Fold each of these.
Amino acid sequence: MSDKNYSDSKKIEAIQNLTLMNDDFMTIMFDENYSLVEYILKTVLQKDLKVIKVITQDYVVNVFYKRFIYDVYAVDAEGVHYDIEIQRSRDGASFKRARFHSSLMDSRLLERGEKNWDKLLETVCYFLYRERYL
């Protein structure tokens, strides 16, 4: 549908409904936006850190499972790798899913055949969702 088919009021309504919970908007807002990702991680983790890498919608392909997409993949100056998953609700934001996400990060961080587990870097998987969890 072309832009001329939308009235000004429909455009305003669409803009007012944009939040970071909207996948397309989130992707645009976070992509290479180091200061925003850094702010969120500092706020959530209560940790002083410096983000040095941000990728949105980062694909992981493996022959043993379906294609996997990180919403936001970030790395801080200390080498800690972060997966930030944006969700509208906490459904699916389980500890086992976080463990799966972390295992995927781990599998990307070691060279093939590496047996020195001390080289495995720290990873953090965080689910950010609209609902407040108590």
Amino acid sequence: MQDSRSLILAYVNAFNRGDLDALCALFAPDALIWGVLGFGRIDQVRSIWQDLIECLQIQLQVDSLICEGNSVAVRFTERGKSAKPFRSHRQTGCSYEIIAIEWFEVKDGLIHRHWGVRDSASVWQQLQFSPQ
């Protein structure tokens, strides 16, 4: 079992490597994940993460990390690039950079709850995605 800070840093490293198996292994079997593109358990959000990694080449840089009890809050600089078509949007080759915030609840050494907050409108604008 690892401490909460190390667990969340492992999450960031796995996400940045695009290692979905390692990423998902950091979550409890009954974990719930809330994000801009959806909500659900690991089996429901895994495909969303796959698309984000493959299509938008998202990379997370930890700017601030706060741990208190079983809660961890992280402020990231998130960068990415439109490398493949994403959902209904064509590939543009454009890059983006935003500030993102994620909140985690840790239980028994695994991520039990996860919330992600991003300015998707800014991402879409920087990637030159047309409104849907």
